[in-house]
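Researcher: Quick test of sequence recovery. Tokens follow.
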């Protein structure tokens, strides 16, 4: 056990319980979660609309009297899907909206990726190569329909270069937390033992 590995050890008050220690370690660890995950997401070139980046957040909740500590990492649900190597579509993705939610449609994806420049479309279905219709909305709809239909014809999709979420989560947060909580537990146990010995020596 080395204090250099865990700066929390020098901060543990005499009356601290394990929940206090866990909360402090989680708070310090999770304060880095969003910046690290955003960097990994950008490096994997997965963000087309900006919604996933904007949705990433984390916080720690602690109930010290109940010895309960929870760490929460929040994001758009499709972020977990982008972490998978293999996907299989069971139907055609929505073109214009999904349950009244435009942001889950292929049209939204195409529009936002055009606006942000994260993806370029060289071919518009129904138009000659290199010809882009003056009506931008028509181009968006045609491309969205083509993408949606392609998932019906080819439902099995292999994603290359994924692993932005779970691999990062385990290496950057779970492993360090486990090591630090073990260090802290030893520190508390040794301090308790030392206090017990000193008391009995009086």
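Model:
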């Amino acid at each position: 056990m080395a204090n250099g590995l865990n700066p929390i050890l020098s901060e543990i008050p005499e009356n601290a319980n394990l929940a206090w220690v866990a909360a402090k370690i989680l708070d310090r660890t999770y304060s880095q979660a969003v910046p690290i995950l955003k960097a990994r997401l950008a490096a994997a070139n997965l963000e087309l609309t900006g919604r996933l980046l904007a949705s990433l957040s984390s916080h720690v909740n602690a109930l010290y009297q109940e010895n309960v500590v929870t760490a929460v990492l929040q994001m758009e649900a499709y972020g977990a899907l982008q972490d998978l190597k293999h996907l299989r579509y069971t139907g055609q993705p929505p073109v214009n909206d999904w349950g009244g939610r435009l942001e889950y449609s292929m049209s939204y994806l195409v529009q936002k990726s055009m606006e942000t420049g994260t993806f370029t479309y060289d071919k518009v279905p129904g138009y000659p190569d290199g010809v882009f219709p003056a009506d931008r909305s028509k181009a968006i709809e045609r491309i969205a329909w083509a993408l949606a239909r392609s998932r019906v014809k080819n439902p099995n999709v292999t994603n290359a270069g994924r692993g932005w979420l779970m691999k990062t989560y385990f290496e950057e947060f779970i492993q360090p937390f486990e090591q630090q909580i073990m260090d802290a537990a030893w520190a508390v146990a040794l301090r308790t033992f030392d206090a017990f010995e000193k008391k009995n020596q009086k």
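The first helix runs from residue 18 to 30.
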